[in-house]
Amino acid sequence: MARYILRRLLQMIPLVLGITFLTFAIINLVPGSPVTNLSFSNPRLRPQDIANINHNLGLDKPWPERYVIWLWHLLHGNLGFSYINGTPVLDRILTVLPNTLLLTGTALLFAFIFSIPLGIYSATRRNTLFDHLVTIGSTAAYAIPTFWLGLMMILLFAVKFHQWGLPALPVGGTHNLRGQSGLLDWIKHLIMPAIALGIVSLAGWTRYIRGSMLEVIRQDFIRTAEAKGLREKSILYGHAFRNALLPLVTLIGLTLPDLFGGAVIIEQIFAWNGLGRLQVDAANASDYTLVMGIVLMFAVLTLLSNLFADVMYAVLDPRIRYD
Amino acid sequence: MAQGSEFVTADADALSNESAAARRRVLERTQLRSTPGFYHRAARKFMRNKVSVVGLVLTLIIIVLVLGAGLISKYLIHQNYATTNFAEQYLPPFTQGHILGTDLNGRDELARLLYGGRVSLMVAGVAALATLVVGSIVGSTAGYFGGFIDTVLMRTVDVMLSIPAFSLLILIATLYSPGPVGLGLVIAFLGWPGVSRLIRGEVLGLRSRDFIDAARVVGASNARIIVRHIMPSVIPIIVVWISLAIPGLILTEAALSFLGFGVHIPTPSWGNMLSDAQQSYTQSWWNIFIPGMTIYITVLAINLVGNGLRDALDPRLSE
Known about the structure:
The complex is a heterodimer. Chain A has helices spanning 2-28, 38-41, 47-56, 63-75, 89-124, 129-142, 146-164, 183-217, 220-228, 232-269, 275-284, 288-316. Chain A is mainly α. Chain B has 2 domains: 1-35; 40-317, MetI-like (MetI-like fold). Chain B has helices at residues 2-16, 20-32, 38-48, 50-67, 69-76, 109-145, 147-161, 165-176, 180-207, 210-218, 222-259, 270-277, 286-313. The longest helix of chain B has 38 residues, at 222-259.
């Protein structure tokens, strides 16, 4: 298993190289250099000045050579400097990364915790009112656009509650920047974004668990367990769910990249100071060094989540051997 | 035993000496007893599923409304989607001839909704079509020929699946500012690996079937086998995939436009209508509610149709 993980980590390297090369190519194949925008903001810029800037930033070299230089610096832990304010890219990314991980992790946890009992109970109580409610609810919730849900939640819980005099949830940022901010304050800021981000996953996983459990319950070993006289809870969670869990883990691993993509939008709506918002700002400001750093970070996160899903699969199913 | 074989040979002679008229009679008799074909049965099963029929009706209504955006806005509601009128900002629905109210610039919401639907559906349609074309070519080639070609193509698919798609989408949209069609093509460029895996699996299963061997024995070329024999069996899977993928593509385009990267203002798109409405939380909440609700209903309707199609077409999933 350790050898498998090591091999996968080694395989990640050419993948990350390929992705960063593709991104670098896309950035640099645009006609005009990243510096052309400068001449719009300062009309007194002489062509000689532009040439000097290009030379200082190393932009007069051909872009494949610049890619290799970027890689060389990357190996030394230097991701370059942001075009906007000159701060090191690595610092900017590492400052906001924990916020994104917090948001995505909470959304994931929320979806995981609620989808399991919902899926299992609706599978065991098939065709009852509960089951119908869960099925209809999850089909309806699966189609909700996350950004619309975020906006509606803000509308209701922040704006309207405030207008009606009810206690309103705060919007904007990860915590209260003025005054004191404790754990409760962070939680109050976190609730809406996490729920908005997690609901679609919740709906999808509930449907999946329900279908998976329905299949597993029909199998012979469940009947054996019932004949042995085990309690229903023990059968459900100990035997049936363990088997239904396997494809779910793969599904979770595959939806993690989508969750990161969804986080970009949610962070924009709720002004959450995270990696997604940084990326949107960087793309808008044409800050290409920062964009390269962020794409690198997202690529690494995506690959790590795929690896995590595969490892979990092997951990949960003793029949699977990876060497 | 000898008598039995005589009977068989006699019948074989009879069949081979049969005239065309007699052959036609035999065919007619079998057709009288013929059962409905696969697509007939699937269509009937789909129609029996009330939820899917509702979804289908909703989808058709939306498509008709969106396609007729020009006619409707000119003759039915007499509003133009582009004329701004700052005296009529933020009107609530059903005031002064604006059925769904106005936005921050005084433009009629309903007209913008209809025209925006055109853009959103066009991007989703182009993306779905392009994804399908590339994905089926790659998937069927990999599945049919196997071996080295399969390995190379699937490795490429794996690499492309680990690209952070949304990040790259944002980047490309910012740098190259593609129009709706270009945007659809870019989304397809990042999304085709998903379909190709699906089709490859299906083709792998079909490749070893007898009728393929029979076609090869008769002398059909590889291309002919793929196009005429394998593809028809893959069509149900493709249909289900399209109906379940288009909602996702609509949402992707809306999300991109919402962030400001997709369709740019003033061209309306459901996404950037939502983004404009962010400025008016307190004044006109319907500007947030209505475009989002439209996206939601469209996506839900197509999802319901897709669920129904999957139940009707994919025999492995029927319980």
